[in-house]
């Protein structure tokens, strides 16, 4: 089943630039990703993949250029407004999972519902409780023992923490899912399971998914592949890399 891909862009970038230490980290003349697309983003280390994600989520502000995400001009939004926007509309799987170690796995998964009234309403509008929704997501990731979700994340393996981060990003049906190497600590079977879950979830909810990955075996699952060296001029010219 394919997404209903819209002509409306989920991401629209023009002349976007961001420099670190005097050198451009991001220099993207143009990039458009349509709503509902399932995108694989790849490139060499240092080519700007994670930096681009941080720009798309509003965690970084560009030096110049146009940056529109889900129809919102991030350059015109305050930091507080971007925090609310990210909480309501974006699901982010960080490269290092970025879980709260003092919270249980279940509490980590449910965090977005506490920060976003939109996601809270979406989850609460269903027939299941928030906790059951979290259990269902983890069951799809082959973590079927509810007791494991009562452990603090600091006590869990890296692979399990990555699964928790994926479930946290998907709960509440975000409009844009950004997944940065979401299954790097897993074996091939588990990696495919994670990618298929994210892609199926995005298709079912008409979300846009952009996934950073170096796993070529996953290529056929995506609608389109984007190489950073083709979109980011700095990926070829930055002397720091």
Mind explaining what this structure looks like?
It is globular, with a radius of gyration of 17 Å. The protein has a single domain (9-237), classed as P-loop containing nucleotide triphosphate hydrolases (Rossmann fold, 3-Layer(aba) Sandwich). The relative contact order is 0.22. Helix 3 packs across helix 4 and helix 3 (105-115) runs parallel beside helix 6. It has a five-stranded parallel beta sheet, with helices on both faces. It contains nine helices and nine strands. The model has no long low-confidence stretch (mean pLDDT 92). Helix 7 links the parallel strand 7 and strand 8 (208-212). The protein is α/β, with parallel strands linked by helices.
CATH architecture annotation name: 3-Layer(aba) Sandwich
What number is the mean pLDDT?
92
Q: Which sequence of strands runs across the widest sheet?
A: 6-7-8-3-9
**Share of β-strand residues:** 15-25%
Give keywords.
Rossmann fold; 241 residues; 4-stranded antiparallel β-sheet; 37% helix; 5-stranded parallel β-sheet; 9 helices; globular; alpha/beta; 9 strands
Compile the SSE list and pairings.
Elements: E1 9-20, E2 23-34, E3 38-42, H1 49-56, E4 64-69, E5 72-73, H2 79-89, E6 90-93, H3 105-115, H4 117-124, H5 130-140, H6 158-170, E7 176-180, H7 188-205, E8 208-212, E9 224-227, H8 228-231, H9 234-237
Parallel strand pairs: 3-8, 3-9, 6-7, 7-8
Antiparallel strand pairs: 1-2, 1-4, 4-5
